[in-house]
Design brief:
The protein has about 240 residues and is an alpha/beta fold. The protein has a single domain (about 40-60, about 90-235), classed as P-loop containing nucleotide triphosphate hydrolases (Rossmann fold), CATH 3.40.50.300. The chain has helices at about 50-60, 80-90, 105-115, 125-130, 145-160, 175-195, and strands at about 10-20, 25-35, 40-45, 65-70, 75, 90-95, 165-170, 195-200, 210-215, 220-225. α3 crosses α4 (about 125-130) and α4 (about 125-130) packs across α5 (about 145-160). The longest helix is centred in the C-terminal third of the chain and has 18 residues, at about 175-195.
Length: about 240
């Protein structure tokens, strides 16, 4: 992103401590993180490194024990539950490992659930076209492959035209070939819509398609890498 561009997210000193009885777990230990407009960032690290905790805090699904998160000009750390709900509804799209589609609704209808409550949505047809499913509008989830269901989930997330798309292991339940198709859908949305995108993965191959790679270990940022040349999903070395 240009140096002068304001960050979508600025997070400083994020700490998250979970207490379960006498056991204390430090999920995050003083993490700093920035996300620029239109940037594609991969959070890379093993299980337990703090990736999902960081993503949940950025998405307003959790709050830090200490530290601060600023989204544009909004302080999420001090926001109340009503403000966080509005933030999630209006500004953030979520994609998880499991698709969470409603079985009794078609692909178009699953996406329309979001467009009906969004402030400035694109049409379900446009969202599904962006992920290559314009030919599957009226198919039910049971009639779709796993990769197609995940692409419906992506379409649902982007249909409200969020500023940021947060993806937690979006290819974790898919084989390599299908995973590439899903990653291509994410790359297209990032490229054509300009949605700032954060993808969690433990698969180092996916790092090649990012603008930046943030490696986490033991709740800390271990290393940040910037890719001079991004790799297309189909050219990743798995």
């Amino acid at each position: 992103m240009p140096v002068s561009a304001p960050a979508v997210f600025t997070a400083r000193g994020l700490t998250k401590v979970y207490r379960m009885g006498d056991v204390t777990v430090e999920a995050l230990r003083g993490v700093d993180f920035d996300l620029g407009p239109g940037e594609f960032v991969v959070l890379l690290g093993p299980s337990g490194s703090g990736k999902s905790t960081l993503l949940n805090i950025l998405g307003g699904l959790d709050v830090p024990t200490a530290g601060e998160v600023i989204y544009e000009d909004h302080n999420l750390t001090t926001a109340g539950e009503a403000a966080l709900t509005a933030y999630r509804r209006e500004h953030v799209g979520f994609v998880f490992q499991f698709y969470n589609l409603i079985p009794s609704l078609t692909a178009r209808e699953n996406v329309a659930l979001v467009t009906e409550i969004a402030q400035r949505p694109m049409t379900p047809e446009r969202a599904l076209d962006l992920v290559g499913l314009s030919h599957r509008l009226d198919h039910f989830p049971a009639q779709l492959s796993g990769g197609e269901q995940q692409r419906v989930a992506i379409a649902r997330a982007i249909a409200k035209q969020p500023s940021v798309l947060l993806c937690d292991e979006p290819t974790g339940a898919l084989d390599i070939t299908t995973g590439v198709v899903v990653l291509e859908a994410l790359a297209r949305v990032n490229r054509e819509v300009g949605t700032a995108t954060v993808v969690i993965t433990h698969n180092a191959a996916i790092a090649g398609m990012a603008d930046r790679v943030v490696r986490l270990a033991d709740g800390r940022v271990a290393r940040i890498e910037r890719n001079a040349t991004k790799v297309a999903p189909g050219d990743l070395r798995w």
